[in-house]
Amino acid sequence: MTSNAGTKGVARADREAQILDVACRAFGEAGYAATSVADIAEAAGISKPLIYNYFGSKEGLHAVCVQHAAETLWAEFERSSRTDTVGLARAVVTLDGMFQALAPQPWMWRLVFDPTAPSDGASHEALLDYERRLFTLGADGVGELMRLAGNTDAGDTSATHAVWESVFRSLVTWWLDHPEVSPAAMTDRCIRLFSTVFGDLDEAARAAVGR
Amino acid sequence: MTSNAGTKGVARADREAQILDVACRAFGEAGYAATSVADIAEAAGISKPLIYNYFGSKEGLHAVCVQHAAETLWAEFERSSRTDTVGLARAVVTLDGMFQALAPQPWMWRLVFDPTAPSDGASHEALLDYERRLFTLGADGVGELMRLAGNTDAGDTSATHAVWESVFRSLVTWWLDHPEVSPAAMTDRCIRLFSTVFGDLDEAARAAVGR
DNA sequence: CTGTGGTAACTTACTCGCGAGTCATATCCC
DNA sequence: GGGATATGACTCGCGAGTAAGTTACCACAG
């Protein structure tokens, strides 16, 4: 009986890309802690040592996954931030962009907000860096709104920022838990919710996302 | 050298209570996954097998901890729900009660909302039961507000409920991350934030918590 | 009031499985 | 032949769970 070892004619770069793709899904769907390297190898149809050859360690592979996911999400946040909208309109635009970006690869979200991710090492650094950038973006928006509302207390602003990020996350998470809802329908829902809570939205909000 | 075995004159019930207390802190502060039974035994100044004698398994111990914590939090939610407040006033009362209940034992919160808790078994059942009860309570409040606002869409109500729970959780979490803020100061902060976002609060909200 | 047996409280020193990480080796292509 | 691609079969540590034995307390017989 012949061994299964030996090249299969797949170049390293291609194999790395394939492993990365499989790993992103696995880490994103099951979480870092619940995913073993053997799981990923099996899902990719290769053996465990190949992953170690190419990525060094489980954490090294995770770091690359996280960087990829963070870049994807960050690109979307940045794009939204460059529209000339403010306040709730800006929020709606950002949510709408995120729904569209996540539709083909919903696991990317949980990959970035994985509570079982390691709390040190390269992947942790990548996440911290992403969170810092995201924080700045969110803090700008919230800070301005608070100033407009006449509240300049630092603690209040900090807490409001935390609440806003949490609202954003819960809307995305709710959508991820209801996969039958299209991105457009979810954006409409967000507009309705904001209208219900804050009163009718500025026309700008609807216009910004083409409603 | 003599062995260390043998009773130390501590009755089973007392020892169980002591282990439970130590375990609640450990699970609540580090999370279920990151806490080993040996850690708990060491923190309690006893040996691992004693825990197995009394609680059967790590998960069995966790189940008792979770039940204890859920009962504590639930008692507080129920108490708040029996006040004759509605809308934002009710929210403020509930937050205020939770801050006061958590002040002497802040780890109880993360014990209940631990993302690394097991996803089956007795402790999972206890958490599901708690969440179901909590869900009903929250759904009532949110549903009524949505109806008053003229929105009866089931999906909208479901999403709003998710957002409200997330807002509640993020306010508590923010407070837990700022231990220098007293419960009373945090309640004041919540009142200010709600006022900033929704306009001035009904006097009822302030009166309900004695401001 | 003093042995004495039974039981509850307690520990030391293990087993066992799982998953991260490694080593030696095999096959293929140029 | 030599380097890139690949794998089977390991080691190793950690944490859950256990078997077997040790000590202190207590009820009761003498």
Automatic annotation (TrEMBL), chains A, B:
InterPro entries: DNA-bd_HTH_TetR-type_CS (IPR023772), Homeodomain-like_sf (IPR009057), HTH-type_TetR-like_transc_reg (IPR050109), HTH_TetR (IPR001647)
Gene3D superfamilies (alphabetical): Tetracycline Repressor, domain 2
Pfam assignment, any one: TetR_N
Keyword entries, A-Z: DNA-binding, Transcription, Transcription regulation
DNA-binding feature ranges: 36-55
GO MF terms held by the record: DNA-binding transcription factor activity; transcription cis-regulatory region binding
GO-annotated biological processes: negative regulation of DNA-templated transcription
Entry superkingdom: Bacteria
Residue intervals of the HTH tetR-type domain: 13-73
Cleaved signal peptide residues: none
UniProt-recorded name of the protein: TetR/AcrR family transcriptional regulator
